[in-house]
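Dear support,

I submitted the protein below through the web form. The confirmation email said the job was done, but the results page showed an empty box. After a refresh the structure appeared. I'm attaching both so you can tell me whether what I see now is the final result or a partial one.
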Amino acid sequence: MACIADAQSVEASDILNGKSTRHKESSCTEGNSLKPYKLTLFSTVTTRDRRVFEYIEETIESHEKKAIDKECGYINGKLYYGFYQFRPDKDGKYRYIFYRNSSLRDDEPCEVTVVYMEGYPTLAELKKMFQK
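What the results page shows now:
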């Protein structure tokens, strides 16, 4: 996807570019549709390929020290979800990664989802938007 190139500075770019995932669904949005959310880029990838679940989790966790804010939840010692905020770029845009491994719960689909977002909302603003 063209807009994934903008995410090259993000530690999860291999995941977003599909280098580590097969059998995936992905989407990327940029432009006017994101303005109400103060976002400039929204990209997501979901995979059901269990062979890459651990790699994706390790990739996400290996960069959590770079996050300026984070919220994580674990099930049986495995990362169930993680929401990470990274330092703003030179234009003041924040970068966010959301990770969720639904395969850790019996009542959810067996899949891993990674979402990358860039823009100007604070973490508190994003959380408020997602709660609606």
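Response: this is the final, complete result; the empty box was a page-load delay. Residues 38 and 97 are 16 Å apart (CA to CA).
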